[in-house]
From TrEMBL:
Residues 52-82 are annotated as: Disordered. PANTHER family: FLIPPASE KINASE 1-RELATED (PTHR45637). It comes from the Eukaryota. Belongs to the protein kinase superfamily. AGC Ser/Thr protein kinase family. Its EC number is 2.7.11.1. Gene3D superfamilies: Phosphorylase Kinase, domain 1, Transferase(Phosphotransferase) domain 1. It comes from Punica granatum (Pomegranate). Keywords: ATP-binding, Kinase, Nucleotide-binding, Serine/threonine-protein kinase, Transferase. InterPro entries: Kinase-like_dom_sf (IPR011009), Prot_kinase_dom (IPR000719), Ser/Thr_kinase_AS (IPR008271). This is non-specific serine/threonine protein kinase. Pfam families: Pkinase (PF00069).
Length: 519
């Protein structure tokens, strides 16, 4: 029905656009506000500065359309059939650029806070599917527009199998359009809700979080702190591998890559389960994190490893999804790269246990639990629990350390986390070749179906309510109760009643003397 309507409304040219999309109704206010990111000092030529890498594909001028982001600047996607299709379409275009008229909208996939997302194809090529995020600039505040630009900037930097590729970014009339990979597998949150007790088997968790870890590693190496990790933002590609989405809450900092050395297993023991005395290491082998083990003596050689972690990243702009907020975000005292590693711990916990670790009776309760000194607790272990659960708990405990500087990942990033025993045996360079877990209910069947239909989409499970990023009045109450010296300003308090889901609040922490809002 909706598909028909959209098809009927398809524009003959870009100028017809006003009639082709329904404007996003007053969207909920974003919790994002631009960060007060404090970059690290540029110590050497190795310092990567985000701004140096901005792609020229980002264009905000009205009525412009852009040439597709060049596949040559994305070496890993050079042979991607989607790129070939885009190149063919632009070669046939009179001005060598991709326009909205080259696309055929097939279906509305969903609506976010900034815009609507459509499944689409190129008019002259039925084999390549894309997701088109359409943002009606006329209906967004200046602040939200800056979020759109942030998302476009970040997307234009990415070249990674577990992150979206931005094929084109164009502005037509008052619409900004971002053309990215289409993920027919839906999101991990919906997949989780299909599982018995909302839990995934441990091997499936290892598969998904290992890929997320690699994606975060890449983002952090670029100095990007993601800040919105949660199952809802982990989409599943046609091949069952993950793709992180939603980059408008990110903030950027400089990162100083370093080489360091470590001595094999002794370091592994440090980051792994320290109570375990192992003389031999069990290596899992076989397809998709299988359980076949092989015993071998630990290697003792000194290994040089690359670490690019934005440890100096700093922002005071508090954003995120409440169950995934790190304690330093809740306290409003400023935060950095550690928030992603905290959220990574929450993610592993939720995938394994079907709930988040600090969830309270209501949102304030959750915040209180996060901010308290109470350590993470686990449900009582089953009598016969899956192999690897002890390692999983140990990893979660090390990630959910309340002090960000003592949290696993803060200093060494994903490099440290990868060495934890939970991930033992994973051959990281081959991670793209691992088979998605066949035992996960709904995963392969849905993906197969979407493949055969060519345009299927794993819908959200009814009742699997997506957790939005919000901030809520309860925080004010909560902080007052704690006698905090910080004061909070709800930037959108007056418009809160207009919000479509009524649960979005953006706030600034004001802890400077002159009372200026930190932005
Ligand atoms: N590349 C994609 N492939 C398939 N579905 C997608 C894709 N990108 C987004 N979607 C779907 O479209 C919907 C809207 O996505 P969008 O990124 O605009 O907002 P969101 O994920 O709801 O988050 P927020 O509103 O917080 O920005 C989501 O439900 C998502 O599942």
């Amino acid at each position: 029905m909706e598909e028909d309507t959209l098809n009927n409304l398809l524009p003959a040219s870009d100028t017809d656009l006003d009639f082709s999309f329904t404007s996003v109704s007053t969207a909920t206010d974003r919790t994002f506000a631009c960060s007060s990111a404090r970059s690290s000092l540029a110590r050497s030529s190795l310092t990567l500065s985000f701004n140096d890498r901005l792609s020229s594909t980002s264009s905000s001028s009205p009525s412009s359309s852009s040439a597709p982001s060049s596949s040559s600047s994305r070496p890993h996607r050079g042979s991607d059939p989607n790129w070939s299709a885009i190149k063919t379409a632009t070669a046939l275009s009179s001005d060598g650029r991709l326009h909205l008229r080259h696309l055929k909208l097939l279906r509305h996939l969903g609506t976010g806070n900034l815009g609507r997302v459509y499944l689409c194809r190129l008019r002259d090529c039925d084999s390549a599917s894309f997701a088109l995020k359409v943002v009606d600039r006329d209906h967004l505040s200046a602040k939200k527009l800056s979020h759109v630009d942030t998302e476009a900037e970040i997307l234009s930097m990415l070249d990674h199998p577990f992150l979206p590729t931005l094929y084109a970014h164009f502005t037509a009339s008052h619409y900004t359009c971002l053309l990215i990979d289409y993920c027919p597998g839906g999101d991990l949150h919906s997949l989780l809700r299909r599982q018995p007790s909302n839990r995934l088997p441990l091997q499936a968790v290892r598969f998904f979080v290992a890929e997320v870890l690699v994606a975060l590693e890449y983002l952090h190496a670029l100095g990007i702190v993601y800040r919105d990790l949660k199952p809802e933002n982990i989409l599943l590609r046609e091949n069952g591998h993950v793709m992180l989405s939603d980059f408008d809450l990110c903030f950027k900092a400089d990162v100083v890559p370093t080489f360091r050395t470590y001595r094999g297993p002794s370091d592994q023991d440090r980051t792994g389960n320290s109570n375990r005395t192992k003389t031999k290491h069990a290596y899992r082998r076989g397809s998709c994190f299988g359980a076949a083990n092989e015993q071998r003596e630990p290697s003792k050689e000194v290994v040089a490893e690359f670490v690019a972690e934005p440890t100096a990243a700093y922002s005071q702009c508090c954003v995120g999804t409440h169950e995934y907020l790190a304690p330093e975000l809740v306290s409003g005292a400023g935060h950095g790269n550690g928030v992603d590693w905290w959220a990574f711990g929450v993610l592993i916990y939720e995938l394994l246990y079907g709930t988040t670790p600090f969830k309270g009776g209501n949102k304030e309760g959750t915040l209180r639990n996060i901010a308290s000194s109470e350590q993470v607790r686990f449900p009582a272990a089953a009598e016969k629990e899956e192999e690897g659960m002890a390692e999983a708990r140990d990893l979660i405990e090390k990630l959910l350390v309340k002090d960000p500087r003592r949290r696993l990942g803060w200093a060494g990033g994903a490099t440290d986390i990868k060495r934890h025993l939970f991930f033992e045996g994973i051959k990281w360079p081959l991670i793209r070749s691992y088979r998605p877990p066949a035992e996960v209910r709904g995963l392969t069947r849905k993906l197969m179906r979407s493949k055969s239909k060519g345009q299927g989409h794993v819908s959200h499970v009814p009742g699997s309510h997506r957790r939005r990023r919000w901030w809520w009045k309860g925080l004010e109450f909560f902080m007052r109760a704690k006698g905090s010296k910080h004061s909070y300003y709800y930037c959108s308090r007056s418009s809160a009643s207009n919000h479509s889901n009524g649960n979005y609040y953006r706030y600034y922490v004001n802890n400077n003397k002159n009372g200026r809002l930190l932005d």
